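Usage

Read records sequentially. Each one opens with the input sequence:
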Amino acid sequence: MKQIKRKYHGSFKSQVTTILVIVTLFITAPVFAQEKSNPPTDGNEILNQMYHYSRPVKYHQMLEDLVGSWAFKGSRFEWVDSVTSKVSMELCGSLVRRSFADGRFFIAEMTTCEKVQLPVRGGLIKDYGRAVQTEGYDNVKKKFQVSYINNHIGSTLHFWEGAYDPSANSITFDSEMEDVPGMKTRIRFVFIFKDKDHYKWEYYSEQNGKYRKEDEMNFTRVKEN
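and closes with the structure output:
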């Protein structure tokens, strides 16, 4: 039994050594020669920094505070001209946010009240109204990140990256979508923190060099009995 344990321990050490060698080669590759910062070259220091940058920080806590069940109401806007918009649809629904990987990431599942039917697969009609959003904060880039998928228009996994503005207590995410080949649209998603029981989402699209609000949703925490 002792021999088996020593063999397993040696195998584990070998795996760790291999990982450190690979990481070291990766970080010191010529492609990184133009980076302003000087990455560590010592294997143990690389591993220590990998662990360090994996830990949740205060920005993860901002998302952690939003874990739970939420109800939302909002509006979809239709632009009449370059300066005037009107509400084209009232929005409502629910969202459940849960923690993943010990508070390093968060998964939000949203269901809308509207049940618009759309032909999205093989000529079949499916109910519109579900979406899943993965949220996190990249400690290295110092950016919030969001990925988003839904069950209606588009086959793209949308990816957003944004910075926190403490003066407005909000995160502004920017991205680009291409639901039709060659037709690219810049989009903006603003996540506004209010208090522990309220926050707001605003969606914008760029038209003629200006961002116009498309959707607005106000979230209220559903408190457990």
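Summary fields computed downstream for this record:
- The two ends are 54 Å apart (CA to CA).
- Helices lie at 2-27, 43-54, 58-64.
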